């Protein structure tokens, strides 16, 4: 079962049980009780999963395929939209990030800076820093956008994790804090 999917286990009682393989809250679903289980998915469920895996766009080299499912990157300044994508060469999920420029001429003025920044990010290789795979510019008539592919971090950011922990009133032990601080310092 892939991340984000849940499995409904039907018992002989009247209440269904939900088992989730996802660590993110709110991604489970509860189905009404069923007297018998079937292995075939309903047409609605098949259509829903097909919509999420539908390929919306492909990279110029054909390696990365953008899908409909959006990734929450709202805490990253400058990224206008981020989608889940598939790396067809490695067989792993990645993030398809898009930065929109309001006008083509605005991009032309910044093109050299954009190239320099992304060339440096792609060369950066560290265990504790998100991997940048590739970038390219998509220039159409009056609009321009820069698309870049990054590693997909399914567990989210440290900031998101701490926010969830605080919300659940759990405290992290000293050992975890030391490990995180060591990783952050190592990346710096």
From TrEMBL:
One of its GO terms (molecular function) is protein kinase activity. Keywords: Cytoplasm, Phosphoprotein, Receptor. It comes from the Eukaryota. GO terms for cellular component: cytoplasm. Residues 43-57 have a biased composition (Acidic residues). Its main location: cytoplasm. Residues 68-188 form the Protein kinase domain. Signal peptide: none annotated. SUPFAM superfamilies: Protein kinase-like (PK-like). Gene3D superfamilies: Phosphorylase Kinase, domain 1 (3.30.200.20). Residues 27-42 have a biased composition (Low complexity). Pfam families: Pkinase. The keyword Ribosomal protein does not apply. It is found in: Cytoplasm. Residues 1-70 are annotated as: Disordered. Residues 1-26 have a biased composition (Polar residues). This is Nuclear receptor-binding protein 1.
């Amino acid at each position: 079962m892939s991340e984000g999917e849940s499995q409904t286990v039907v018992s002989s009682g009247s209440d269904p049980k939900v088992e989730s393989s996802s660590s993110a809250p709110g991604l489970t679903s509860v189905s009404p009780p069923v007297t018998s289980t079937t292995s075939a998915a309903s047409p609605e469920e098949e259509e829903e999963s097909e919509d999420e895996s539908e390929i919306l766009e492909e990279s110029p080299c054909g390696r990365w395929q953008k899908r409909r499912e959006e990734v929450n990157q709202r805490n990253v300044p400058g990224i206008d939209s981020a989608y889940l994508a598939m790396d067809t060469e490695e067989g792993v999920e990645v993030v398809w990030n898009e930065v929109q420029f309001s006008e083509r001429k605005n991009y032309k003025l910044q093109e050299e800076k954009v190239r320099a920044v992304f060339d440096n990010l792609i060369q950066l290789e560290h265990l504790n820093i998100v991997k940048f795979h590739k970038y390219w510019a998509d220039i159409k008539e009056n609009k321009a956008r820069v698309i870049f592919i990054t590693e997909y971090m399914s567990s989210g950011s440290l900031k998101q994790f701490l926010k969830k922990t605080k919300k659940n009133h759990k405290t992290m032990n000293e050992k975890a804090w030391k490990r995180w601080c060591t990783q952050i310092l190592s990346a710096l």
